[in-house]
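so the lab meeting is tmrw and i was supposed to have these ready like two days ago... anyway. pasting both below. for each one the top line is the aa sequence and the line under it is the structure tokens. i havent really looked at them closely yet so no promises
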Amino acid sequence: MLLLINAVLLGVGLAMDAFSVSLANGLNEPDMKKSKLSGIAGIFALFQFAMPLIGWFCVHSLLEKFKAFEKFIPWIALILLLYIGGKMLIEGIKGNDEEETPALTFTDLMVQGVATSIDALSVGFTIAELNLGLALVESVIIGLVTFVICAIGLLIGKKAGSKLSNKASILGGVILIAIGIEIFIKGVF
């Protein structure tokens, strides 16, 4: 029972960055179809599921190499989110002659998935005392929690995005840049 509670709490904590990015994605694409919404939430959930397991594996096999990499995590997240957020911000400021805002590409989603889940690598340290089976269960729960939270973020963003029209891309870009800065500040200081 304690494992379940711990996994849900970890999932909620880890999913907050992905929630904010999902909100921005929903703002950017208010006409998003349910299948795409599920796919985006699924990508974030997949990364949040995989990263703790990768961290667990690193602890059990590559600890010293991972420790050296750990100090770069905030920098990587900052750069990735500045890139995607900056791209959205520029597109929003330029405006489109067309009514549609540019849809997220698969590459954009992969970058967002890595940027919002890279801090979950360190969760591998906190679950290192678990055997592989329990670490897998914990990671599955984290992924499921992330999926639900991101789907909610996308739905809220879609609702607000349809009301904000052209400003949605600007707001979404600002949110992504702010998340990147927040991850960086938390990770460095």
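ok protien two:
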Amino acid sequence: MPQRKQVIFIADSLDNAHRFQSVLSGMEVDVSAGSSMQFKKLLSQNPQCDLVIFEATGDVQRGVAQAEQALAEDGSVALLVIVREDQLAEFRPPVRTKSDFVVHGASADECAARIRQLLWPGNESAASDFIQVDDMTINLATYQVKIAGEPIDFTYLEYALLAFLATHPGRTYSRDALLRRVWGFDYYGGSRTVDVHVRRVRAKLGPELAQHLETVRGVGYLWNA
């Protein structure tokens, strides 16, 4: 699972567009940009998006609430809101999705720091290609998994499911969300395939490591690091 992330940038002002274009150009991200009128279209075209950067204009709470509502179903897309200083009194951060905000006109360094924290929490440089959990090592660059130094024979989708959950620890994903994020937009099978792959991954991990891949009854799955 590559570290490169997908970002949607929504702004109606050229000032923010230019500022964030400069910031994002130095990161391991692919960006789809548009105006607020194009938000839903861009979201549907980029089902594997990791972060939405959203410029709040006009009625700030209404705009932020609509953005949050659009992202809440997936539960995995982070939201960075750009607000003007005079909007702060009425601004309330979203609570149903991982989020942060930055004030209009903030320095490029501050914008970059907040983006990195949302995309790569605990690893803001995004430089490491390895995830270590107990005696298991996931190599994100080579798509390989080793347990106690021994390679494990995962299929690509088994690996992709494990790597996705392990790179998003502590977050619960529904089966439909996992289908979108791991299998991709073009997958039309039923959500039962997620359960089948989870069972296979657990079996290959062994009983101790498998405990990290938890079932959240009635919701889906999470990786508890």
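from a quick look at the 2nd one: The chain has a mean pLDDT of 84. Helices lie at 14-24, 39-45, 60-72, 108-119, 156-166, 175-183, 192-205, 207-210. will dig more after coffe
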